[in-house]
Design brief:
Elements (H helix, E strand, L loop, with lengths): L16 H21 L2 E3 L8 E3 L6 E3 L8 E3 L1 H16 L1
Antiparallel strand pairs: 1-4, 2-3
Helix pairs in contact: 1-2
Length: 91
């Protein structure tokens, strides 16, 4: 007699949701701490130089995106500042 296997959808090892959520929480807290500690990053357009050259490298121009500072506000810090402004306005 042949034994038929039941077609069940239950895996032998369940997904470790606790580990996944814990790792995501640690990553989010780490990113928030780094945005608090280092709020600025290099400008992506001029690579932090504050200026860039034309194709023939004879004329240097000030970067319009960072206005010559060479740095930009990180996305996480921008979100942090937005929440802080909303909180200040609510008090």
């Amino acid at each position: 007699m042949r034994h038929l296997l039941a077609a069940t959808a239950t895996p032998d090892h369940p997904m470790p949701w606790g580990w996944i959520l814990g790792a995501l929480t640690i990553a989010a807290v780490g990113y928030a701490a780094s945005c608090w500690w280092w709020p600025f990053a290099c400008c992506r357009r001029c690579d932090g130089k504050g200026r860039f050259a034309r194709a023939d490298s004879k004329v240097w121009r000030v970067c319009r995106r960072c206005k010559g500072s060479g740095s930009r506000l990180r996305t996480g810090r921008r979100v942090w500042n937005r929440f802080a402004r909303v909180r200040q306005a609510g008090q």
